[in-house]
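Team,

Forwarding the record for the chain on the shared tracking sheet. I've put the sequence and predicted structure together so nobody has to dig through attachments.
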Amino acid sequence: MLKKLRVILAIIFIVGITALFVDFTGSAIGPAAWMLKAQFWPSLLSFNIISLLLLVILTFVAGRVYCSVICPLGVMQDVFNRLGSLRVKKAARRFRFKFVKENKVVRWSVFAMFAIGMIAGSFWAGARIWMALIEPYTMYGRIAADIVKPVYEAGNNLLADIAESQDSTVFWHVSSVVGGDTVMWIAIISLLVVGVTAFLAGRTWCNTICPVGTLLGVISRFSVFAPRINKSLCNGCRKCERNCKAKCIDSSGHIIDYSRCVACMNCLESCSNRAITFSIRSKKPAAVVSVAEKECDSSRRGFMTGIAAIASASVAKAADALVDSIRPRDEKTTDGGFAPITPKHNPAPEIPMVPPGAISWKNFSTHCTACQLCVSVCPNEVLKPSMSLDTFMMPMMGYDLGYCRPECVRCSEVCPAGAIRPVTVAEKSDISVGTARVHVRHCLAAQGEAACGVCARHCPSNAISMMPVDPDDKSENPRRRPVVDESCCLGCGACENLCPVSPVSAIRVNGRDAHTTIG
């Protein structure tokens, strides 16, 4: 029963977290965003004391349950491990593994480098690149955002083609920004390395490379509840050892390495003699189970079943929430059907722009895990992973494809690491992330080529005004140019994105070191 409960909860977590990355409607944020708060590394970066304390208590009470239930990369490894068992002949399927001693040199060397990167990252954001490559939540985030999401959207677009042929609007075409070739290849390599390792060798990655697994392993050595081997009942069949994907059970010596045990409960299910129990650790386990203990166990199973039913209901509720949807913005390739539109290729700003709620560039860079979740949920295609060495894979704002709409706060709703703090729509309307700057030589209105004024008409904060180029010109229609009031500019990029000048806009936004409040 414990294994079944573990599997049900693991499915809930991986489905919910994956939905946050792939759902283009934003409907998964409400029912599933809380799962991100349970991720260890983002909670540590955001100084979420409550989440960290709960995770430490959970590990101290029941061992590394986090690795088998809450961590999406850990659950993904279980999927590959299950697929790996299918390649083995049926007779030998239950005897895949054997006990292997802990590789302390590799395990603690990787953890030491991770810790050094964490400390150095407070001074230079580029030091976090190493951490982003091996931290489990971040790794899974890139896999979900750059591999799973494009496949999900391709399936949606196929259904949209079918619906369109039937004059139906049940599905519609979508497109979104992915990390780019470099980030995509990093995600593919991560998937291959972790997937193949799990396929062939179970939880080797978790127990040798993963820094979170190493840290939680120290706590789990002293866990209150853990699998125990009753020597008097053990018949030496070694089924527990051969089914332990963590390779931490030495059945010949009746020893379990609790620092590597991920509480998967495979050993409990495989033991036909019931010589292994998940119970309070003690020096002398009871050899005989009394009637009273059986009744207690029965009650506990009923309680666990109730929890599983509640968890299943939560999944159903989350699925219902995904029905709600929003329409994506139209994609145009021609200007009114006449002139082709040249794609924007605006140069990167001098100071990187980060979303409202990030507070400052320093706060953002020291908290961001580069998981790509904010990139996935951005409906306006504003956020893209950086390719700069200092900010590699961290999301940056760019207005080539869209602009940061004042009514959208999705990125602040999902960031689990505190890099983007939660803000309301009202708060966002007062936050300035940058200032627009007019490049007169390229401006159609300033050069007298057209009476444009697009930037002024679409500025949501009325920070742009069309002023006469020559103040002394008293004619009826003097030539005008856009002038930016920096004290009112939000840096939303509407002017830059909608400017008709291509491929480089005549008005561009530069970021602020620290965000300010207008008004």
